[in-house]
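If your schedule permits, I should be very grateful for your opinion on a structural question. I would ask you to consider whether the tokens describe a fold that such a sequence might reasonably adopt. Thank you for your consideration; the sequence and its tokens are set out here.
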Amino acid sequence: MTTSAGQLVTDYLDGLAAGDVERVVGLFSDDGVVHSPLDGPRPARDFYPALFADTGRADLTLRSVMTGTDQAGRSTVSFWFRFDWRLPSGAEAPFEVVDVATLAPDGRITELHLVHDTVDVRPTFEAEVGHASSRASSGPAD
């Protein structure tokens, strides 16, 4: 499935915006994992159905695509985008995000780390789903 970094990102964001589980999960290796600050680490095949169930609408604006290698020499692709997320209730939960993907030799994603500040999104998300996220707020800092 070797493809360019730009095409991988386009395919991913298009699938994400469409809520297309098969399209997005198909970009991952069979044992691909998503590391989310709201949900913790989960297999991609489990993460995306849950994300799409928690999504009423998603408008995505790509800002940048960066490529490189990690310390183990594996190919990586990072992409910065705005995620204008609406929960099923219509509540808005927009945020800026950088996703960092580690790629298998065939170009599929083995790990995807979602890097975003959840301080504004977390309370809306937790109210919507009715339970604490993976890193529940601990209250105000001392």
